[in-house]
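Researcher: I'd like a candidate sequence for this fold, 362 residues long. If you have to choose between options at a position, lean toward the conservative one.
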């Protein structure tokens, strides 16, 4: 039965890091939602979060949390290799799943999660919170209301000067993470570009990856909270890919955890249309002045800078939408298929880079 506004939605959260804590706080802030269980293996952190957030039940192992029969939702904010087993177990037991990106380390594992959601008829939502930014939503409305001609190319990038999230941690282990900067930052940038371009399908990919700084022990984030070990650096700190679309258009997708470049942190998406263009540029998580709109007037080029303020809370927004979907009972289009396509594209990026050739997206 679908949950309603009158029946509290009972949530269990797996994960004690940034993703898990962010989800915990977001779910806890919503009316009619109760976080009743929390799981994680760092006991002091588990006790701290459960005590300060008023979570009554705590577990060392995620299996024990998922086994609870009174949960409606399981939220997953753990290393990438654990997404699939937790999600599949939760879905099979009749629970809806909210999962941190990426869906899984590989497209094949992502497919098993989507299949499990469809078989169970339960919602599988991925934390694509950046598309919920006010400036991204403004651009989506602008493109709905204004014709910039055929959008033939997009550039989408997230670049860091020194931002490897924990040298030696699970983030830099290929088996646990599935990759480096591309699997970490790429899903967000691919999601924003496809969202703004009205969801074309990526058909072919040509890509390169590099790990020059990370392999030399350089480029680690000064603010990294995930240090967790002394694993070898097995992933890339920079990736660049040309994506060919079923519309005949293209996307240049670029991600960098670390590089000797100008900006400490920037997020950029630019769409080139045949009669106009738009650009989103977010430096160091700016909240104002992030949009430029390009066109012609009387034969002269013009640039428009709309006033859009981006308040904090796009993490909360994606969870609000997830809760609304769960409560609606309309789950048939909420099995994670769009996230699966993004995972398949990221897979193709790595396959192309490994094989030194253009590849088709599965």
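Model: Candidate sequence:
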């Amino acid at each position: 039965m679908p949950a309603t506004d009158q029946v509290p939605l009972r949530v269990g959260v797996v994960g004690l890091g940034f993703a898990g804590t962010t989800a915990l706080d977001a779910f806890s802030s919503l009316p009619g939602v109760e976080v009743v269980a929390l799981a994680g293996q760092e006991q002091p952190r588990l006790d701290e979060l459960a005590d300060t957030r008023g979570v009554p039940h705590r577990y060392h192992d995620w299996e024990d949390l998922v086994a609870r029969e009174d949960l409606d939702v399981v939220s997953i904010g753990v290393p990438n290799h654990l997404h699939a087993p937790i999600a599949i177990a939760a879905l099979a037991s009749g629970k809806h799943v909210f999962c941190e990106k990426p869906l899984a380390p590989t497209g094949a594992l992502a497919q098993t999660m989507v299949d499990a959601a469809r078989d169970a008829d339960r919602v599988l939502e991925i934390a694509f919170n950046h598309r919920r930014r006010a400036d991204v939503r403004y651009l989506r409305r602008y493109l709905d209301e204004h014709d910039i001609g055929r959008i033939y190319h997009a550039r989408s990038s997230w670049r860091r000067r020194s931002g490897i999230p924990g040298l030696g941690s699970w983030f830099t282990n290929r088996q646990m993470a599935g990759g480096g900067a591309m699997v970490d930052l790429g899903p967000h940038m691919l999601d924003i570009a496809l969202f703004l371009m009205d969801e074309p399908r990526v058909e072919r990919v040509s890509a390169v990856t590099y790990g020059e700084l990370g392999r030399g022990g350089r480029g680690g984030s000064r603010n990294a909270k995930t240090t967790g070990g002394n694993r070898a650096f097995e992933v890339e700190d920079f990736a660049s890919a040309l994506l060919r679309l079923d519309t005949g258009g293209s996307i240049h997708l670029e991600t960098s955890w670390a590089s000797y470049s100008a900006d400490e942190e920037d997020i950029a998406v630019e769409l080139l249309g045949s009669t106009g263009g738009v650009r989103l540029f977010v430096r160091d998580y700016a909240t104002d002045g992030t949009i430029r709109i390009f066109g012609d007037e009387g034969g002269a080029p013009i640039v428009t800078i709309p006033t859009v303020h981006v308040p904090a809370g796009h993490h909360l927004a994606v969870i609000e939408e997830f809760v609304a979907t769960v409560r609606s009972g309309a789950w048939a289009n909420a099995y994670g298929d769009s996230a699966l396509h993004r995972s398949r594209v990221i897979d193709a990026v790595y396959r192309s880079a490994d094989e030194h050739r253009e590849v088709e997206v599965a």
